[in-house]
Amino acid sequence: MVMPYRDGFMKHAYFPALDGLRCLAIAIVMLAHADVKYLRSGGIGVDIFFALSGFLITTILRSEFDRYGSIRFGNFYIRRFLRLLPAFVVAAMFVLVQFRLVTGEWPVGKLMLALGYVMNWAKVLTGSPRFPMGHSWSLAIEEQFYLVWPLIVTLICTATASKKARFFAMLSFALGVAVYRALMVGHYSAIRIYFGSDTHSDGLIMGAALAFFVTLLPDGRLTDRMSRVTAYVFSPLAMFCLAGAMVVWHWWDASMGRIGFFVVAVSSTMVILDLVAGSHSLLAGLFTLKPIAWLGKISYGLYLWHLPIYHAMDELGIPGAWATKLAIGAPLTVGIAALSYYTIEKKFLKVKDRFSRSVEKPKPAISDDGLPSPVFAGIPFD
Questions:
Q1: Per-domain residue ranges for the chain?
Q2: SS3 for the chain, per residue?
Q3: 217 vs 90, 211, 322, 368, CA distance in Å?
Q4: Are 120 and 140 in contact (CB under 8 A)?
Q5: Along the 382 residues of the chain, how does pLDDT read in single tens digits?
Q6: Sign of CA dihedral 210, 284, 227, 230
């Protein structure tokens, strides 16, 4: 289902199925952090988030450039700040008080690493110590990536008006990161490779490549034949690869660094393509179920809060293995995440919309043949 709506500087469409994919991603992460057996690489959920984020954010940037001929960097950074930091600060304050009550210490330094979006490099330097906000390493990689990404999108879009050239530039970039990481395996530690923003960004870039690929499709949709092939062959195969990666590889395995992360990035991107550009998706029916889509909508809060809650349960000495964490911690996390979404995140989302370019007159859209295009070649995003 695709539902039109207004958001920021242009008209978009909302894909509930992408919220369902977020639900899958956060479920994988929460199960892994609860120490569920046989789930060796819960970081696969993070990699799904990376591909989703790369697709959605690059769609926004690419659409803004196509519509106005430029990207307002300041507005972009303010929108990112308003989307992420308010809820993040509240979760960090909880951890601050929790840590003080349990250990008698104020973990100000560690929280500053989290709030400063450098937790990934702190893990590289210190060996990934246990900390209730340690999972902020993934947010750090994203924000470091987006610090330079508007400039890169601008350079690529300025260098060529060819949609194919833009797509292949992004695809080559993702392949380059994958090869660079593979060459580092055996020379650098698994921690350096996993938590480095330079070695763990191909998922973000593959999602970005998809944001350019869909502009090559008529009206941003796969043909009926390709939609069927994607729905019945490629997307199930991609889900199989994601499931296989979770149970076969640990994140520190050399084979994960050489090929595993790239397989996960490609698989995640294929699933996203099926959901946003296909007409026969088998997954869309599951991912658009209201409870699943709703959990995906509050997935940012679920990500922020689940690990501090799990840590609090450990510190309180609540007995039981992973089943207890899920039985008690998961519902508690859902409740707090929902409260965070409706009382904090949604309010700042309204403020975020003020930093748009909706009042500006767009430039005429130009097609690949250099002629004015009667329809703005945007692609819907969630």
A1: 11-349
A2: CCEEEEECCEEEEECHHHHHHHHHHHHHHHHHHCCCCCCCCCHHHHHHHHHHHHHHHHHHHHHHHHHHCCCCHHHHHHHHHHHHHHHHHHHHHHHHHHHHHHHCCCCHHHHHHHHCCCHHHHHHHHCCCCCCCHHHHHHHHHHHHHHHHHHHHHHHHHHCCCHHHHHHHHHHHHHHHHHHHHHHECCECHHHHHHCCCCCCHHHHHHHHHHHHHHHCHHHCCCHHHHHHHHHHHHHHHHHHHHHHHHHCCCCCHHHHHHHHHHHHHHHHHHHHHHHHCCCCCHHHHHCCHHHHHHHHCHHHHHHHHHHHHHHHHHCCCCCCHHHHHHHHHHHHHHHHHHHHHHHHHHHHHHHCCCCCCCCCCCCCECCCCCECCCCCCCCCC
A3: 42, 11, 45, 13
A4: yes
A5: 444 333 333 344 567 899 999 999 999 999 999 988 777 778 899 999 999 999 999 999 999 999 999 999 999 999 999 999 999 999 999 999 988 888 888 999 999 999 999 999 999 998 867 789 999 999 999 999 999 999 999 999 999 989 999 999 999 999 999 999 999 999 999 999 999 999 999 999 999 999 999 999 998 999 999 999 999 999 999 999 999 998 888 888 899 999 999 999 999 999 999 999 999 999 999 999 999 999 999 999 999 999 999 999 988 888 767 888 899 999 999 999 999 999 999 999 888 888 877 656 666 554 444 433 333 333 333 3
A6: positive
Residue found under tokens 């959605």: 56
Structure tokens at 117: 């979006």
Please identify which residue in the block is written with the tokens 């920021």. Answer: 8
For the record, the structure tokens of 193 come out as 């490779």
Place of tokens 């893990």: 123
